[in-house]
Amino acid sequence: MDNSMFFAKFWGWYLIIFFVILTFNPKRIKQIFNDLNDEKFLIISSFLAIIVGLLNIIFHNIWESNWKLIITLIGWGSLIIGLFLFIFPKRTVAVLKYTNIKLVQVIYILLFLIGLFLLNTVYGIVPV
After folding, report:
1. Burial, 102: exposed, middle or buried (Cβ in 10 Å; 0-12, 13-18, 19+)?
2. Could you tell me if 122 and 68 are in contact, meaning their C-beta atoms sit under 8 angstroms apart?
3. Residue 22 belongs to some domain of the structure
4. Could you report the per-residue pLDDT of 44-93, keeping only the tens digit for each?
5. 80 occurs within a structural domain
């Protein structure tokens, strides 16, 4: 299996699972943002985001104008958010909280649709 298909499966399933968990237990969203005030949780979260982002970029940094670009952008987004959380923790948490409050519905629906799109690309459930 090539890297693109692997990452499409990984991110597709991850986004769908994340969406389902947050849909049935919306208290988790608030809990995550409350936990970001804990410095230890923030450091671990930023390290994980940096690691996931770097691994994604190292194995899949494809800048083509197709579905592969979505995977690359997810990797770069993870790396950038991880770096900002580590370097500018208070400012980044404030921006994430503000964005989440204003665009929570749009963000989660978008993540769900991206997850569905990636899984459809891999499994070909609905022909395009």
Report:
1. exposed
2. no
3. yes
4. 999 999 999 999 999 999 999 999 999 999 999 999 999 999 999 999 88
5. yes
